[in-house]
Amino acid sequence: MRRLLIGLSVTFLALAMVLPASAQNRRERKILWNSQYNYEIEPVGVGQDGTKVFKVWGYGKKVNDAVMNAKQAAVAACIFKGLPGGAGSAPTPPICSQPNAEQIHADYFEKFFEVGGKYLQFIALTNDGEPAGADRIKMRKGYKVAIYVQVMYDALRKQLENDGIARRLDAGF
Predict the structure, then answer these.
(1) pLDDT value of position 96
(2) Which of 56, 59, 69, 75 could bond 119 through an S-S bridge, CB–CB 3.0 to 4.6 Å?
(3) How far apart are the first and last CA of the chain?
(4) How confident is the model at residue 124 (pLDDT cuts 50, 70, 90)?
(5) How many CB atoms lie within 10 A of CB 87?
(6) Long-range contacts of 76-80 (CB under 8 A, 24+ apart)
(7) Residues 6+ apart with CB under 8 A from 58
(8) Tens digits of per-residue pLDDT, 30-69?
(9) Quick one: which H or E segment has residue 58?
């Protein structure tokens, strides 16, 4: 009987310690969901020189909104987060390696990522049709879709360097 009580006590203490640490309330989930750094990217291969090819996920109430969000996330990932390696491609560091670059140059990036903004000129190729199958997931309040994109990485880097947002590669230390 004593062993049973000790076993139950240890189990209860372990659950009391683990459950609050992993539980997320609704507000935390919303912050995580809306985070500007929440990009889901999967490398799919090596593109032509100066380009990056990968699969990116986007979210929206309608499928077309999710596709546009995915295009925006593709360019934003190249600028702020970098790209993971895999499928024959090497990992790529972010173009803006400066911490908090998005907040420092907030006016520039607000205009850059506005609807129909300049970011679209750096997406060379997408599968613009409505995604289907595993690339289109119906969620409670909208859709999560995946598209394949080819971002003109070198041109994007050059544009940000010319605008004074990113540091030039030939700049000294």
Answers:
(1) 86
(2) 75
(3) 70
(4) confident
(5) 13
(6) 76/36, 76/39, 76/113, 76/119, 77/39, 77/41, 78/52, 78/122, 78/151, 78/153, 78/156, 79/156, 79/160, 79/166, 80/36, 80/37
(7) 66, 67, 68, 69, 70, 71, 72, 73, 144, 145, 146, 147
(8) 666 566 667 788 888 887 888 888 899 988 899 888 888 8
(9) strand 52-60
Residue keyed to tokens 């609704």: 26
Q: Which is more confidently placed, 158 or 17? A: 158
Label residue 122 exposed, middle or buried (CB < 10 Å: 0-12, 13-18, 19+).
buried
The pLDDT of residue 156: 92
Q: What is the pTM of this model?
A: 0.73
Residue type, 116: G
